[in-house]
From TrEMBL:
Family to which this protein belongs: In the N-terminal section; belongs to the UDP-N-acetylglucosamine 2-epimerase family.
Subcellular location(s) of the protein: Cytoplasm, Cytosol
UniProt-recorded name of the protein: Bifunctional UDP-N-acetylglucosamine 2-epimerase/N-acetylmannosamine kinase
Any GO BP: UDP-N-acetylglucosamine metabolic process
PANTHER family (alphabetical): BIFUNCTIONAL UDP-N-ACETYLGLUCOSAMINE 2-EPIMERASE_N-ACETYLMANNOSAMINE KINASE (PTHR18964:SF149), ROK (REPRESSOR, ORF, KINASE) FAMILY (PTHR18964)
Native source organism of the sequence: Chaetura pelagica (Chimney swift)
Lineage: Eukaryota, Metazoa, Chordata, Craniata, Vertebrata
Binding site for Zn(2+): 584, 594, 596, 601
Quaternary structure note: Homodimer. Homotetramer. Homohexamer. The hexameric form exhibits both enzyme activities, whereas the dimeric form only catalyzes the phosphorylation of N-acyl-D-mannosamine.
Pathway as given in its UniProt record: Amino-sugar metabolism; N-acetylneuraminate biosynthesis
Active site residues of this protein: 532
Length: 737
């Protein structure tokens, strides 16, 4: 032990002599807000603990000194750090101009401080506009800069600021291997990059406060239990302030509806924060019995709150970084953290433009427990950073050099490959067959299983479970990771609950059936259920002609007639989940009887069943078969025989097909006059036989303002399975919805 102590002292002496006259390294740490202090504080404690090597000067500026944001400089004082300088640099206004003026004000005030302190190195953290002013001042005054958390990718203006600071900094401390590779790709000197991990993890992974319940009760009330509350932290997105305020409003509405105790932290000082606070007050959040609105929570206590929460929601980097250390479920809203590496605990809701989406995400995530993630650190960042600081040679030229060698090969798995292997189990419940398929993210059907659809509820559910288990097992062999199960079924479906309310006559014993619960319990996967017509529309939206189209309608022409309506990129379900029952649009008051009990529906004219009915009539009268056709005695007459007869010149068969096409065309005209889509997609086995007739009817019957609508035949081979898969691929964990 004595030997190693002496050896350590000798090494310390060598480093001091290297820097000349036993000179200590004078380090200036500048902190701007509560978030960056949580990362800088562990480093500051480490520096303070080694006075033989370092002199520490602390500069406080930014929102630390504003009462509306909690006067958080006090926690720095409580940590027993001497604050050398306080700089009031924030210009109030919380808009874009105020941010620019704040940077300018900091640039005016910082030179005097840096002249007095004369630090050897300045430590700057992150991607805030205050940090950009610090880095700019230090670089122009020939002060070395150590940048913490460079090389990461997120969203909004933060990316640009972070990378700008990277180009000004002389040394870099990054948190992940990916960030290190980004820095190298940005031509930074590899010898001046330290992969240390996030300093806050040093505190997170050693936090073992046994009395966490007192912290929870202090902030949320005496009656709150662990895993039964939510922490919400949402900031404005400076590149789209209007949308971020709307998203915050929808988030609060969803949290109110979700009806769980929620701790809401005030947003940061970025442009748009004032409007977000107005939204909170407009909705009465500060006085709502389920909410606790606070400006600041000390980091030690904040750790305990998120560690034992049922869920965290918002767009703070804390959610995608620090919270992963506890496996707490996180809902990341919007684009502010796009590009961040995340653990399995994070569900991304990129386009959080409806309350239902956010509410659905809460239902998916709340109360879950995920594996703890150490993507951003292993708890040993500070010792590495201190060692890195000690290795800095002040005699080296200050002028920064950039390296332009080929970028090192990234040994991580290619992202395209990852996306391709993320897959869904798709289930299609038809009148005749039950099909299950493994469908990849790109819409490729990797494996498909088909069985006859049983006639009873018990047999049908048993077969679904058996086929899904078999497919899930096979998914491992074909290198597919199953994200969830999507089910397409005939009938009226409540997709929110995963219940078939009642079915068509084609599927017996299929009313008031809860599909979600038994399948989810058996497979331990999330399950989505929707009507087959809606699934066809979703398939077109993700993989087909509807991709990128704001308003379109899909019509399925098969055994029956169904469809789905997409309006402003969203599927319409209706108040009682009966929207888009397009097959039951009445086109004649005295037409043939439909299976629904009405008369003159499109389905009574143009469905496969309707064509089969007419084919049987012709066959019974010996008017179906023409030259070139033959039928075996036991062969059942079908719609296919009618189509074949029409192609071979049977005028009566041709007339029936024309009438069917006209009925379908009249239905499409009614749709055009009701929802005014820009695109109509005909799907199913009969689509190619009807498309010209539909176009003719539109030309003759539709108003001039809708005649230009595009009518196309779907190019998807299996829209029902692809639509069921898209339920999963668009809505499941870590996917965009």
């Amino acid at each position: 032990e004595v030997y190693f102590k002496n050896l350590s002292k000798q090494k310390q002496k060598e480093v001091m002599e290297k820097n000349g006259n036993n000179q200590k390294l004078r380090v200036c740490v500048a902190t701007c807000n509560r978030a960056d202090y949580s990362k800088l504080a562990p480093i500051m404690f480490g520096i303070k603990a080694e006075p033989q090597f370092f002199e520490l000067d602390v500069v406080v500026l930014g929102s630390h000194l504003i009462d509306d944001y909690g006067n958080t400089y006090r926690m720095i004082e409580q940590d027993d750090f001497d604050i050398h300088t306080r700089l009031h640099t924030i210009v109030r206004g919380e808009d874009e101009a105020a941010m620019v003026e704040s940077v300018g004000l900091a640039l005016v005030k910082l030179p005097d401080v840096l002249n007095r302190l004369k630090p050897d190195i300045m430590i700057v953290h992150g991607d805030r506009f205050d940090a950009l002013a610090l880095a700019t001042s230090a670089a122009l005054m020939n002060i070395r800069i150590l940048h913490i958390e460079g090389g990461e990718v997120s969203g909004t203006i933060d990316d640009s600021i972070r990378h700008a600071i990277t180009k000004l900094a002389h040394y870099h401390v990054c948190c992940t291997r990916s960030a290190e590779q980004h820095l190298i790709a940005m031509c930074e000197d590899h010898d001046r990059i330290l992969l240390a991990g996030c300093p806050s993890y040093d505190k997170l992974l050693s936090a073992k406060n046994k009395d966490y319940m007192s912290v929870i009760r202090m902030w949320l009330g005496e009656d709150v239990k662990t895993r039964d509350y939510i922490v919400a932290l949402q900031h404005p997105v400076t590149t789209d302030i209007k949308h971020s305020i709307k998203m915050f409003e929808l988030t609060l509405d969803a949290l109110i509806s979700f009806n769980k105790r929620t701790l809401v932290l005030f947003p940061n000082v970025d442009a748009g924060s004032k409007e977000m606070v107005r939204v909170m007050r407009k909705k009465g959040i500060e006085h709502h019995p389920n909410f606790r609105a606070v400006k600041h929570v000390p980091f030690d206590q904040f750790i305990q709150l998120v560690a034992h929460a049922g869920c965290m929601i918002g767009n703070s980097s804390c959610g995608v970084r620090e919270v992963g250390a506890f496996g707490t479920p996180v809902i990341n809203l919007g684009t502010r953290q796009t590009g961040r590496e995340t653990g399995e605990n994070v569900l991304h809701v990129r386009d959080a433009d409806t309350q239902d989406k956010i509410l659905h995400a809460l239902q998916l995530q709340f109360g879950k427990q995920y594996p703890c993630s150490k993507i951003y650190g292993d708890g040993n960042a500070v010792p590495r950073i201190l060692k890195f600081l000690k290795s800095i040679d002040l005699k080296e030229p200050l002028q920064k050099k950039f390296c332009f060698p080929p970028v090192k090969d990234n040994i991580s798995q290619d992202i395209d490959h990852i996306l391709e292997t993320q897959s869904a189990l798709a289930v299609d419940l038809g009148g005749t067959n039950l099909r299950v398929a493994i469908v990849s993210m790109k819409g490729e059907i990797v494996k498909k299983y088909t069985q006859l659809n049983p006639k009873t509820y018990e047999d049908r559910l048993e077969l679904i479970l058996k086929m899904c288990v078999e497919a899930a097992s096979e998914a491992v062999n074909v290198n597919c990771r199953i994200l969830g199960v999507g089910i397409s079924t005939g009938g009226r479906v409540n997709p929110r609950e995963g219940i078939v309310l009642h079915s068509t006559k084609l599927i017996q014993e299929w009313s008031s059936v809860d599909l979600r619960t038994p399948i989810s319990d058996a497979l331990h996967l999330p399950v989505w259920v929707d009507n087959d017509g809606n699934c066809a529309a979703l398939a077109e939206r993700k993989f087909g002609h509807g991709k990128g189209v704001e308003n379109f309608v899909t019509l399925i022409t098969g055994t029956g007639i169904g469809g789905g309506i997409v309006h402003q990129h969203e599927l319409i379900h209706g108040s009682s989940f009966c929207a888009a029952e397009l097959g039951h649009i009445v086109v004649s008051l005295d037409g043939p009887e439909c299976l629904c009990g009405s008369q003159g529906c499109i389905e009574a004219y143009a469905s496969g069943i309707a064509l089969q009915r007419e084919a049987k009539k012709l066959h019974d009268e010996d008017l179906l078969l023409v030259e070139g056709m033959s039928m075996k005695n036991e062969e059942v007459v079908s719609a296919a025989h009618l189509i074949q007869a029409a192609k071979l010149g049977n005028t009566k068969a041709n007339s029936i097909l024309r009438t069917a096409g006209t009925a379908l065309g009249l239905g499409v005209v009614n749709i055009l006059h009701t929802v005014n889509p820009s695109l109509v997609i005909l799907s199913g086995v009969l689509a190619s036989h009807y498309v010209n007739a539909v176009k003719d009817v539109i030309h003759r019957q539709a108003l001039s303002s809708v005649k230009t609508v595009d009518v196309v035949v779907s190019n998807l081979a299996d829209p029902a399975l692809l639509g069921a898969a898209s339920l999963v691929l668009d809505y499941t964990t870590r996917r965009i919805y």
